[in-house]
Amino acid sequence: MASNSSGDRKSQPQSRRKKSSQQQVEQTDRSVSLSIKLVRLVICGFGASTIAGTAISIVNPPKPLATKIEPPIPIPPPHQIGLLAATTASTTLQNRLQVLNQKSTKLDASYLFINIDRGEHSEWGADRVLPAASTIKLPILIALFQDIDAQKIQLEEKLTIDKKSIAGGAGDLQAQKPGTQVSILVAATKMIAISDNTATNLLISRLGGKSALNQRFRNWGLDITTINRPLPDLEGTNVTTARELARLMMAIDRGKILSDASRSQALSMMSRTTRNTMLPQGLGTGAKIAHKTGDIGSLIADVGSIESPTGKKYFAAVLVKRPYNDPSGPELVRKMSKIAYTYFEQPVPTATPSFSPKIESGLPKTPLLKKRSTLNN
């Protein structure tokens, strides 16, 4: 019995140790199992958040970090050109102009006369691509005053004449020595009033060069008007159309391409054009004109806005191909100008419906004047 009791006492600790070991194993298993579950939960949670984040980023992509951008200099008023809607072709005016043109067999005229308030126009070959001659100085003037409005250029700023800019032909700056300085105001005035080619080349350079200017013309909606060479460009590589010249003139006079101050100054310069042998000669006493002429021998041109003493206003753009320096070219423009002035001075026929100009964005357009662009041969 004693031996049995002694064996039982010895066996009890061993069984307790076994149970304790099993409990530890079970606890370890439970801990491991719990850890595994926690890891799985974390992984699942991370995966779910990743999927959710991806979905959100697709539906609502994150915005880039904001960077400080300097606001543009405001141009008062908005520089976008606005104005003009459809006008009706005047059969009467067209017939009178065509009878005149048919008599001038050695001349080839392209033109557009348009009276917005009256709602009438007359055109012939208005989309023909022709040499611009010095009428190319008109869009350069607009670009200059846009930069003045944007405070990028000051009228008092000095330009330095260099050998590259000096050009023959019209103007007196060509007589100045390289290194001579001239203000922007003087250069712009000479470019328009006496068609100074040296002044024009200086301004083209100051405005960023011909490529920069051509891009601006495209931004305005001009498809054709292009500077290809510096002035005087006697070969006629700088091109335009009668329609685009008329649109530019309307843009200055009635659009919002320039501030009121710049518009007034640009028209003042154009009213001082010294060559008045074409459009001005066909006007009545007391009429006012702001215009720009062009002449490269084989082609002459004149574009302007005309206002009669009664306050009636219309726009004209005429380009005439001619035998070199043929005097009958300017005479044709004078006669066409007189016909248009006389017609637009007449009262509006009672059958003509009232016309209300429509405001449009961009350059003035003439929707009813369909483009028929054909390259000049």
Structural commentary:
By secondary structure, the protein is of the alpha+beta class. The protein folds into 2 domains: 48 residues; 288 residues, Beta-lactamase, CATH 3.40.710.10. It contains 9 helices and 11 strands. Strands 1-3-2-10-9-8 form a 6-stranded mixed β-sheet, with helices on both faces. Helix 2 packs antiparallel against helix 9 and helix 4 packs across helix 5. The longest helix is centred in the N-terminal third of the chain and has 58 residues. The chain is globular. It starts with a helix and ends with a strand.
From the alpha-carbon coordinates, what is the Rg to the nearest angstrom?
Answer: 39 Å
- Overall CATH architecture of the largest domain: 3-Layer(aba) Sandwich
Q: Count the strands? A: 11
List the strand order in the largest sheet: 1-3-2-10-9-8
Question: What structural class should be given to the helix and strand makeup?
Answer: alpha+beta
For the report, how would you describe the main beta sheet? 6 strands, mixed
* Main CATH class of the largest domain: Alpha Beta
Principal-axes shape call:
globular
